[in-house]
Design a protein that fits this description.
By secondary structure, this protein is of the alpha/beta class. Helix content is about 45%, strand content about 15%. The longest helix has 19 residues.
């Protein structure tokens, strides 16, 4: 599927070949600045219903009050492959939207194919950059340049059933994944593991000492299939013997599961009464850390598409969204901000659960910043499922995964 998308992208590049190898600032001329007339910025997003309500009724009016010459037209979309295809086609044809709230894993693909602007070219970018959290900011970095600003971030934490934890003799959660595995095996507890993708299992793979790619993201062989990675998958196989997938959220509250991992929406979508029930029966803590890696970093970035009719106006909009006030407003919906200095705990006094997520961000990790990440994820998922379910040996599976990943990486680097 993604190879097909890439083919469209390459074909589409003939439509925008004039923009190749050019920055936003072309020659000695700056971008056309907005005039005194009201100018429309089309903004595509994937906010939830409640997030959309706050964004449209509180955030946009605040922006338009400060910038009366700019008019924001938000368009809500579902987060799916169709959105990716539509954005690809429209950017290739240099058609709006102007600005998009984009999943952080999509950015490298659009950056590689020159379908979004590099924000590094804006004169005040360095000043804006200094006010943003490092981890989310780095999700916008691709091959020496920044292609967006982080809008909201998240990670997953470990959520334990309070009663089961106490039964096992623990007053605080386990400190590493080996301890979790021993505890689950010794007490015959069940653990909530929902699937095999990198979002679902990479924290466990890393937690048991595995490595996915080389530090520069150019090679898989010798990393995903090295000795420690093999041992990591063997331990994951042991853990999965005690796993379950059914009704994980209620299961960990009721004690059917000893532990699961989940993002802040485990709490934020609940009623206050339900949150009180959950927190009385569970304990949340940052995901166990191994080699300075805890759980996976998620979130959305703000990008300016090549179809933007006025990139300078779009820049005004996205740098404002990446500032404290709008992010504080959206924090009410459970979206974690990316701006330094926002006291999340004080702004969400009724949400004590947020502390574990704030602490978890310190050791959260980015999935590799490669343009063809969707294909890498697909290969990883395919072989991880086969290995854990015993359909293929661990060493054989990791060797095959390394071979297939290296073909993708070589192609991305233009060496194949």
């Amino acid at each position: 599927m993604y190879k097909w998308l890439l083919a469209i992208g390459i074909a589409g590049m003939t439509l925008i070949s004039g923009c190749n190898n050019q920055s936003i600032i072309e020659g000695n001329h700056s971008i056309q600045k907005p005039n005194n007339e009201k100018e429309e910025i089309i903004f595509w997003h994937t906010y939830s219903e409640e997030e959309t309500r706050v964004f449209e009724n509180e955030v946009i009016p605040l922006f338009e009050k400060q910038y009366p010459h700019l008019d924001i037209r938000p368009v809500r979309h579902s987060y799916n492959v169709q959105l990716n295809r539509t954005l690809l086609a429209r950017a290739s044809a240099k058609e709006p939207p102007d600005v998009v709230r984009m999943d952080i894993t999509w950015l490298p693909f659009f950056a590689k194919n020159r379908l979004i602007y590099s924000v590094s070219d804006f004169k005040d970018f360095e000043d804006i950059k200094e006010g943003l959290l490092e981890g989310p900011l780095n999700s916008n970095f691709y091959r020496g340049r920044y292609y967006g600003l982080p809008l909201n971030t998240n990670t997953k934490v470990a959520i334990y059933n309070r009663k089961r934890l106490k039964e096992a003799g623990y007053s605080i959660p386990p400190s590493n994944m080996d301890e979790v595995l021993d505890l689950v095996k010794n007490h015959h507890y069940r653990i909530g593991l929902s699937g095999f993708t990198t979002w679902e299992t990479l924290p466990y793979f890393y937690g048991f000492g595995g490595t996915l790619l080389s530090p520069d993201y150019t090679k898989a062989n010798g990393f995903i299939n090295n000795k420690r990675s093999i041992q990591a998958v063997e331990k994951m196989k042991d853990l999965y013997k005690y796993s379950g997938k059914d009704d994980l959220w209620q299961g960990v509250v009721d004690g059917d599961y000893f532990m699961m991992d989940e993002g802040p929406w485990f709490y934020s979508v609940q009623t206050p009464q339900k949150i009180e029930e959950i927190t009385s029966q569970t304990v949340s803590a940052p995901f166990p850390v191994m080699n300075e890696k805890g759980s996976v970093l998620g979130g959305e970035n703000l990008v300016i598409m090549k179809g933007a009719r006025n990139p300078e106006a779009s820049w005004t909009f996205i740098k404002w969204l990446a500032s404290p006030k709008p992010q504080e407003l959206l924090l009410k919906t459970g979206l974690m901000p990316t701006v330094k200095g926002i006291n999340i705990k004080d702004l969400t006094p009724a949400s004590g659960y947020i502390s574990s997520y704030i602490d978890g961000l310190e050791n959260s990790f980015l999935r590799p910043q490669v343009a063809d990440w969707a294909q890498i994820d697909e290969i990883y998922t395919k072989y991880m499922q086969m290995m854990i379910l015993g359909r293929i040996g661990v060493k054989e599976g990791l060797d095959l995964a390394a071979k297939e990943m290296d073909e993708i990486l070589l192609e991305e680097e233009g060496r194949l």
